[in-house]
Amino acid sequence: MKLSSPIYKLKRRAKLLARDNNIRLHEALNQIATKEGFKDWSHLASNYSETTPAEKIIRQMSSGDMVLIGARPGHGKTLLGLELIALAERINRTGYIFTLHYNETDVWDRFEKLGFNPRESDGRVFVDTSDNICAAHIIERLKKTLDQALIVVDYLQLLDQKRSNPPLDEQVRALKTFATERGAIVVMISQIDRAFELSSIGLPGIDDIRLPNPVDLSLFDKKCFLHDGKVQIEMAA
Questions:
Q1: Strand pairing of 222-227 and 185-191?
Q2: How far apart are CA 200 and CA 148, in angstroms?
Q3: Mapped to the 3 state alphabet, what secondary structure does 203-224 carry?
Q4: 99 with 74: CB under 8 angstroms?
Q5: Which pairs with CB-CB distance under 8 Å and at least 24 residues apart come from 7-13?
Q6: What distance in Å separates the CA atoms of residue 152 and residue 229, rounded to the nearest whole number?
Q7: Which domains does the chain carry?
Q8: Which pTM does this prediction carry?
């Protein structure tokens, strides 16, 4: 049985129903489940398994983590980053997407294609498309907030495009320090070198990250690689 909306959206709908009708959350969840054709919420949950890469990754995230998502163009790395933002509320975090690649309209459109409307998220999702995005810009933007942040940066290599910015390795270290000190989670989307497509390897790996300048990739606690619908998640040793 196909759900009318992703399960996280059904849960959000139940929260609104509970608030608007002054009923308990479990009662609202059961009402939503009944409308979806299930006996109750536990029946729905037992028949619907959330196994998307975003679900797998977000369950393994911890405060202070730096996460790398790598893929060739068109293989879903940006979509995965946006899915993580859409799920940020589940782990009681505010989502921030910093992108030098897309304009704001593009980002909202991509969110809507996921079945998620950030404008209905009670101000828990923010989009920044400033041309000045770099580690210092991100840290300055967030240093006064008390929120537990889930930050997605799109994408790693573009932080290095302005000569006025510090070296890329220095920026990654600054974001790692910020994440550790503030309990934030920083996810960085990364390009994969085009030479990967000439190899016979099924999935890219850490050696396939395109680095115009050196970066200590051991700073990343978790790494996720995508290609042709396959996903591999690597944890720090």
A1: unpaired
A2: 41
A3: CCCHHHECCCCCCCHHHCCEEE
A4: no
A5: 7/44, 7/45, 7/48, 7/50, 8/86, 8/87, 8/89, 8/90, 8/116, 9/115, 9/116, 10/36, 12/89, 12/120
A6: 21
A7: 7-47 (no CATH), 53-235 (3.40.50.300)
A8: 0.79
Please report, in tens digits, the pLDDT of each residue of the chain (237 residues total). Answer: 678 887 767 887 888 999 999 999 889 999 999 999 999 988 887 777 656 788 889 989 999 999 999 999 999 999 999 999 989 988 999 999 999 999 999 999 888 877 777 666 677 899 999 999 999 999 999 998 888 999 999 999 999 989 899 999 999 999 999 999 999 999 999 999 999 988 888 899 999 999 989 999 999 999 999 998 888 999 876
Amino acid at the residue 60 = Q
Tokens of 4: 């009318």
Strands of the sheet with 149-154, listed across from one edge: 125-128, 94-99, 149-154, 185-191, 66-71, 222-227, 230-235
